[in-house]
Structure formats: C-alpha cells, structure tokens
Design a protein that fits this description.
With about 350 residues, this protein is α/β, with parallel strands linked by helices. The chain has 2 domains: about 1-65, Phospho-2-dehydro-3-deoxyheptonate aldolase, domain 1 (Alpha-Beta Plaits); about 85-335, TIM Barrel. It has helices spanning about 10-25, 50-55, 105-120, 145-155, 170-175, 190-195, 215-225, 255-260, 270-275, 275-290, 315-330; strands spanning about 1-5, 25-30, 35-40, 60-65, 85, 90, 95-100, 125, 160-165, 180-185, 205, 230-235, 265-270, 295-300, 335.
Length: about 350
C-alpha cells in the first residue's frame, strides 16, 4: 500500500501519518520528491482498511500495490534511482561503461586493458577474480591473487573495480576492496547470500538468472533492499532459449519493462549474451537505444590466447569504436558518461 501526501505537507504531519502506520504493525519507506512525499507501507496490509488513512487531511490518496516487490517498485519510488559507485553515477542519465577482461590473468594484462579502456572513455573496470565455470576443468580464476591485482590496477588508473562475489566467506573482503560487487546469474536466487549483501554498504550489480522471469529477478533485488542495502543495479545478460547458435538470447525488451516496473538502474552485458565478439557492437547500440543505463563489455588485449571467453571479447581498438558509436546514441537520448 502506498500513501501519497498532499504537496507541501509539513514534517510534523508526515511524522503523524508514519506513526499511525507503525501503530498498525507495518514498516514504512519514505520517498520525498520535489513536489510530494510518498510513504510506502511494508508488511501485511490486507487486513487494514485504507479509509483509516484516507480520512487524514494530509493524505491525497491511497493506492494498493499488487506486485509482491515493494522497495524496488516504481510506484513506491517514482523518480529514477541513481547509484553512486565510488564517484561514478549510474542511472538518471549517467551511464556506467564497464570494460575489462572476463578473467584476471596477470597484472600486466589487466593494466594494459584498463589503460586502453579508460582512454576510450570507460569509467569502471571489470575483471573476474573468481570464475564460476560450467566445467570443473576450466580455468577458475586466480582467486584472492586476482582481487589483489584488480586493486593494484585501480591505484594505477583510478578506475573503480567490478568483480563477482562467489562465496559468503569473502563478504568482508569484498566490502572493503570492491567498488561494485557483482552477483552472477547462478547466484541470483541464492537468497541467504542476497540477505547478507543487504548488510553491506557497497552497491550491488545483480545479474539476471539464466531462466529467471522479470518478477523473480526483481524479487531477488528486493531481498537485498529489504535487508538494508538499496543500492542495486540490475544487469541483463541474456537468457536461455531454444536457440543454440548464440550463447544466450539478449532480452532487449527487459530494459523498458524494468524501467516501467522499477526505479533501479538497468545495464546490459552484451558479451555474455551473444558469446561472439562481432555481436557485441550491434547489441550494445541497441541496448543504449532501448534505454539501458550502461554496458558491461569484455575487452581483452589478446583474445585468441585468453584463458576465459576470448571468443566474446573485443580488442581495445574495437572497444574504442564501440564507445564512440554508443556515445553518439546516448547524446541523442540526453545521457552522458560520468
């Protein structure tokens, strides 16, 4: 249930409504906009008569929310959320341009790629320290050594780092060292992990599961937000369909759908979606045109010899071309890279 207060309602009057809501055993989530204040009622509202609030002279209207997600719901928060990743704004017209190798292989490798990506305009550095792989015999990443390499490259370049968290045992370490903590498709519904992420003060990049519906994906974000961390960015990375020519099928319509249903920033990972480097440019341009708040693109200085996902990685010069194309589309839509 959402309670919309009348314009210019004073703080004393807001507090009165909040106290009334809490007296009924509900929690509240307050959004103060430039013109109005909205109070979200969180909890079981089915047994509460909305007329109790409608008779209040400060209340403009009361609306019932049908969707099971509340904090992520745009009805609760009409204005777009902007997530701050160590100074890089994501959402509200500011694009996250995340680039880097699928997997951290060496300091020299990551540094060379990071410098080239930054020169093109990238504002965040991605790199897998821990790599979840379908086969147990595939390269699994350098682990903590890889994380140290990312931190070292961050000092050299100033680029905030994005990397995937696999295990709760590394929560404190990631909270200390990682600027944007990525939760991969395989962990999207690891609810115990999601609840623990809600206790952190770092923003979270939540990738869509391989077969997840929009509601399931948003509900996973809700787990994080309900536990205390509302700085969540959603990432569309392709879903599994009957088509096997590409690695996954990029669901471009998820962008306008999520922007309608939620207030959270939505970015796209075109590299994992197609699995082929020559698809990345077209899907990146389409994603920005569809309203995405950023891209996460895999870039490698020597894809032919990459230890992980070389086939979907762009060489630095190709990423430079891609960035220029995307920047032109973003400009038409009134978006910029912060």
């Amino acid at each position: 249930m959402i309670i919309v207060l009348k314009p210019r309602t004073k703080q004393q009057e807001i507090d009165h409504v909040v106290n009334l809501i809490k007296s009924k055993g509900l929690d509240t989530h307050i959004v103060e906009g430039s013109e109005m204040t909205i109070i979200g009622c969180i909890g079981d509202t089915t047994r509460i008569d909305s007329k109790l609030f409608e008779v209040n002279p400060f209340v403009d209207k009361v609306m019932h929310v049908q969707e099971p997600y509340k904090l992520a719901n745009r009805a609760f928060h009409p204005e777009e959320s902007i997530v701050d990743v160590s100074g890089v704004k994501v959402g509200g017209g500011s694009l996250a341009m995340i680039a880097g190798p699928c997997s951290v292989e060496s300091t020299e490798q990551v540094l060379e790629i990071a410098l080239a990506a930054k020169a093109s305009g990238a504002n965040l550095l991605r790199g897998g320290a821990f790599k979840p792989r379908t086969s147990p015999y595939s390269f699994q990443g350098l682990g903590l050594e890889g994380l140290d390499i990312l931190c070292e490259v961050k000092k050299e370049t100033g680029l905030p780092i994005v990397t995937e968290l696999m295990s709760p045992e590394h929560l404190e370490l990631f909270n200390e060292k990682v600027d944007l903590i990525q939760i991969g498709a395989r962990n999207m519904q690891n609810f115990d992990l999601l609840k623990q992420l809600g206790q952190l003060d770092r923003p979270i990049l939540l990738k869509r599961g391989l077969n997840a519906t929009y509601e399931e994906w948003i509900m996973s974000a809700e787990y994080i937000m309900a536990s205390g961390n509302e700085n969540v960015i959603l990432c569309e990375r392709g879903i599994r369909t009957f088509e096997n020519y590409t690695r996954n099928t990029l669901d471009l319509q998820s962008i306008p759908v999520l922007r309608k249903l939620t207030h959270l920033p939505v970015i796209v990972d075109p590299s994992h979606a197609g699995g082929k480097w020559w698809l990345v440019d077209a899907m990146s341009r389409a994603a920005i045109a569809a309203g995405a708040d950023g891209l996460m693109v895999e870039v490698h200085n020597n894809p032919e010899c990459a230890l992980c996902d070389g086939a979907q990685s762009l060489k630095p010069e190709k990423y430079d071309e891609l960035f220029r194309d995307v920047a032109q589309i973003a400009k038409v839509l009134g978006k910029t890279v912060s």
